[in-house]
Amino acid sequence: MSSATIHIDVPKNLLLKANGGQGQVYANAQRAKHLRHKGAAIGRDWINRHQPWRPYGHVDIEYEIHYPKKPPRADPDNLAPTVKHLVDGLTDAGLWEDDDYQHLRRRTYTMGPPTRKTGLWRVSIHITPIHTEEPS
Questions:
Q1: Confidence band, pLDDT 50/70/90 cuts, at residue 6
Q2: Which residue intervals of 1-136 are DSSP H helices?
Q3: What is the H or E stretch that residue 59 is in?
Q4: Are 91 and 36 in contact (CB under 8 A)?
Q5: How confident is the model over 28-73, as pLDDT tens digits?
Q6: Which of 25, 31, 66, 101 could potentially form a cystine with 112 if both were Cys, beta carbons 3.0 to 4.6 Å apart?
Q7: Residue 78: closest CA among 28, 6, 22, 128
Q8: Contact by Cβ (8 Å): 62, 110
């Protein structure tokens, strides 16, 4: 299997952030549900365009976070709660068997160029298959 990138656009009203300010529990649960569904739909579409398909075994993942505009200071891993639900949806779609540490070995967050669209963030998920196991 070769490397791949999946881009998922996330409007501001669906963002979940690790640094708080997210409102009520019910609203967060609804956001999480929408994000997971969005990840699953995009994952199924991606798989349908890449037939025949076999789920990835072991991969390294880079989450490239694109803000609407370049902030003076940014902490891309603050979007980890958003990314988690998107990845759960990609797992539901069958992109990989499970999203545990044995299948998604290494996860990194990086900053990408801005989307230049007001209220729109993008998560670019770069998938690199691991062909040989490294000793523990």
A1: very high
A2: 25-48, 80-93
A3: strand 59-66
A4: no
A5: 899 999 999 999 999 999 999 999 999 999 999 999 999 999 888 8
A6: 66
A7: 22
A8: yes
- Residue 77: is it exposed, middle or buried by C-beta count within 10 angstroms (0-12/13-18/19+)? middle
Token digits of residue 102: 């044995």
Give the count of beta carbons closer than 10 Å to the beta carbon of residue 55. Answer: 14
Distance CA 129, CA 90 (A): 16
Region of 132 on the Ramachandran plot (φ > 0 left; ψ -120 to 50 alpha; else beta): beta
Kindly report the number of other CB atoms within 10 A of residue 115's CB atom: 16
* Phi, then psi, of 74 in degrees rounded to 5: -145, 150
How far is it, in rounded angstroms, from Cα 70 to Cα 121?
Answer: 11
Q: How many CB atoms lie within 10 A of CB 27?
A: 12
Residues in Cβ contact with 89 at an 8 Å cutoff, skipping those fewer than 6 apart:
35, 36, 37, 38, 39, 40, 41, 42, 43
Global pTM reads: 0.91
